[in-house]
Write a structure and sequence with these properties.
The chain is of the alpha/beta class. It has five helices and five strands; from the N terminus they run βαβααβαβαβ. It is 36% helix and 19% strand. The two termini are 24 Å apart.
Length: 168
């Protein structure tokens, strides 16, 4: 029997990831499970420009910028769920720093999640410019594709806009 007690949804706050959250909510409700929402921030020590050049963060250290962005991400994740859902669902909202694929796979393994639901932007590694400038270089796949390849559990990839299930 399949049980989905822990459903992980990585989010970048895009429309595609919001659709994935709808699926995760429904799975968690149906199986009386929990929803784990993870947002991955880039490592500011590796890519110092990752947090932008907004006036409010200029002059702050990398650690202070990271803290500020973690606070923003936590607030955005909280807003993905209604107040009723926050009460009814067992939610785990986490922001981590690092490479998205590595962090998602690490979280899924450590938390022993049963399913990863991910939004995909529908981008492909195929196209007219792939390999044009550097034909010896293999195309790099999307985060969703690389998560599927390395995941310790099933992964449901949700495209937006595409076919959505109708819920009664």
């Amino acid at each position: 029997m399949i049980t989905l007690k822990k459903v992980l949804v990585p989010t970048d706050f895009s429309e595609a990831s919001k659709v994935a959250i709808k699926y995760a909510r429904n799975f968690a409700s149906a199986y009386h499970g929990s929803v784990h929402v993870v947002h991955v921030l880039p490592d500011a020590s590796v890519t110092p420009w990752a947090f932008g050049v907004e006036p409010e963060v200029m002059g702050l250290s990398s650690a202070e910028r990271e803290k500020r962005w973690k606070e923003r991400a936590a607030e955005q994740m909280k807003q993905l769920f209604s107040e009723a859902e926050r009460k009814d669902l067992e939610l785990h909202l986490t922001t981590v720093v690092g490479h998205p694929v590595q962090q998602i796979l690490q979280y899924a393994t450590e938390q022993e999640v049963d399913l990863i639901v991910m939004g995909t932007h529908g981008r492909s590694t195929e196209g007219p410019n792939i390999g044009q400038n550097f034909p010896w270089e293999p195309p790099i796949g999307s985060v969703a594709e690389r998560v599927v390849r390395g995941a310790p559990c099933p992964v449901l990839s949700v495209r937006n806009p595409e076919h959505e299930f109708v819920t009664p």
